[in-house]
Each structure stands twice: as structure tokens, then as C-alpha cells.
Amino acid sequence: MANKVYTGRYTVDNTEDMVVFIIGMRVNKRLAIHKWFPVFTAMPGMVKELYTNKEELGFLSMESYFGLKTTTMIQYWRSLEDLLVYAKNEKHLAAWKQFNRKVNNNEAVGIYHETYQIRKGTYEAIYVNMPHYGLGKALPHIAVTAEKNSASKRLNNE
Description:
By secondary structure, this protein is of the alpha+beta class. It contains six helices and seven strands, in the order ββααββααββαβα. It is elongated, with a radius of gyration of 18 Å.
């Protein structure tokens, strides 16, 4: 169940390298719907494909945020190689070509992404009375023990 709350303190297993990919769009001119709506509607098909083919694509999980002007997705990937292979995937390339054809070089909509390669042992998380969320949804969700009861210990610094 996606909304089940796990009472207590939890962290994640940080023993593997991973990639955090942040992607989003910003509506610069709200009334230019014909310019930004095609960008907005391109994403659901790709997200469905990611969740349907998680294992073979190396996609772990994601969180989405919708603001007044900006939408953001934080995606978690098994490796940079998996992410780059997906970037050349047919569905992604079709959406990118459509974006460039319809809305590239206009002020109505912007897109952005940031990619972070994260080495094992260099990331940590804490969740208290939370459902699986963020890294806790993407990676093994484990109870905090005495060996992992501080950020420093979770980061393997102690």
C-alpha cells in the first residue's frame, strides 16, 4: 500500500551507487497554453513506461511536485549508464524531437534537468512516521538501529 505509514525511524540502504535526476518544466507565459501544454502532456507516457519497465531500464522511483509555474520530478536511477540509455529510448527521443519542433527557442516554456552521480556511502536519509517516500521508496527501506542512529553513522563517517 503506497500510503501505509511506517511508525518509527527508518533509513535507506546506501551500499550501492545511484543517480538522482531532476527534471522539470517552467511555464513562463501562462496564456500560451498551445506552447507549454504539449511539453506537459509528453511526460505521463514516459513515466508510465518507466514504471512498467523499471527493472530493465534501471529506473528506481520518482517523486513529482507541481507549483504555479514549475513542475519538478526527482527520479532515482540505478546508474548513469541506465539513465543515458533511456535518454536515447524511442519514446524519450520522440518527445524531445516534438519539443524541439514545437516549442524550442520560445519564451513561453522552459525545461531543465540536473543529474547527480552519488557514490555508495555518501548519501543518507531519515524518515520518521512516513510512508515510503523519496529514497525510501527507491531503495531498501530499513529500520534505524544503533549502528545507524545518526546522519554521521549513516554516511559511514563514524
